[in-house]
Amino acid sequence: MTVADDSDVLVIGGGIVGLSAAYAITRAAPGTRVTVLEKENGPARHQTGRNSGVIHSGIYYRPGTLKARFAARGAAEMVKFCAEHDIPHEVTGKLIVATDRSELTRLHALVQRGRENGIPVRELGPAQITDHEPQVRGLAAIHVGTTGVCDFGAVADRLASLVQDAGGRIRYGAEVRTIGRRPGRVAVRTADGAVLRANALVNCAGLHCDEVARLAGDDPGMRIVPFRGEYYELVPERNDLVRGLVYPVPDPAFPFLGVHLTRGIEGTVHIGPNAVPALAREGYGWRTVRPRELAGTLAYPGSWRIARRHWRYGAGELHRSLSKHAFAQAVRRLLPDIADEDLAPAPAGVRAQAVLPDGTLVDDFLITQSPGMIHVLNAPSPAATASLPIGREIARRALAMLADTGTVRA
């Protein structure tokens, strides 16, 4: 066993939220000793690096929630950050399209919500839809001008460099195995036997955040239930079917936005995600099964309550997972000219969805505290978009903890 140098703050998790928190600490209090522990061999290997790269506007989120507060602010900050650091990005705007009369009421409600959140939205009729997206069909739509795309993996890489430039350390291949604590101090042991000590710990472990909280002796009051987001992409010769970003009207009963069309910063058009239960927390395909993790999900009462509450929705998602034809049929609601052979499989992602014991899907960001600990327990989309303001909020809390122990550095 080896003992590493002490730190003021340990951050567990090298995704975009953990790196943003470390970056914010180094900016707010230069000289603060920050160490990021990441179990993979580089940053952003899971949720950050496996999404469609959309900079979300914040139109969907209930006014007053952390999502609403952070998303609109974060979108503007993310565009500015990308511009300042030469990271590929583009503000494209997006369409949210109603294809059935039953969706019109929800579409109009989104217009009102967008305005309450200070987001510019414009209502469109069928002819105006085709002005923006000639191949898309719908009864009505709204155009959200502040949405865009970027490379969040490149953002995470840059944040990691900025943390290190400011004197912070990032230890890759450092999987946390045990956490000990006493008043004003915390000690972490990693898989290679290293022991790291600090005055405060920030848990940004994403898919494993609830497990890290339990290692620290805290009851998170929820469990991460992983959902795999399955994507296709248009074959290159059909990329001209989609110019920008096209979304369906979301179902408010479920925290997923439905199958949408996204032209990424590299020009590839991604279609998805289709959301199905994952058989492992990092289960990017049906063949990846981790019995211990799956058993934990199946033993959790909230998992069964989700299944009972949303079984019809889930059955549709499962059908589209197993049938490319069924997936293409869902896409044809927005893009009638799509054919099965126009779709090629693309890499999947896994969403770390926090679920309460009663089966409630936590809809907002969830950040909790205990002595010496900050736990980020739910940070799904739009967490990448909002990562800079989220990071500052975490930094504010961590530095307040250091102040309580008298260890804030000038």
What does this structure look like?
This protein is α/β, with parallel strands linked by helices. It has two domains: 2-47 and 153-222 and 364-405, 3-Layer(bba) Sandwich (FAD/NAD(P)-binding domain), CATH 3.50.50; 225-355, 2-Layer Sandwich (D-Amino Acid Oxidase, Chain A, domain 2), CATH 3.30.9. It has helices at residues 16-28, 66-84, 104-116, 126-132, 152-165, 209-215, 291-299, 301-309, 311-322, 324-331, 387-405; strands at 2-3, 9-12, 34-38, 54-55, 89-91, 94-98, 121-124, 140-144, 148-150, 169-172, 176-182, 185-190, 194-198, 200-203, 223-234, 245-248, 260-263, 269-277, 343-355, 366-370, 373-378. Helix 1 links the parallel strand 2 (9-12) and strand 3 (34-38). The protein is globular, with a radius of gyration of 21 Å. The two termini are 32 Å apart. The mean pLDDT is 94.
List keywords for this structure.
410 residues; alpha/beta; D-Amino Acid Oxidase, Chain A, domain 2; 2 domains; eight-stranded mixed β-sheet; 27% strand
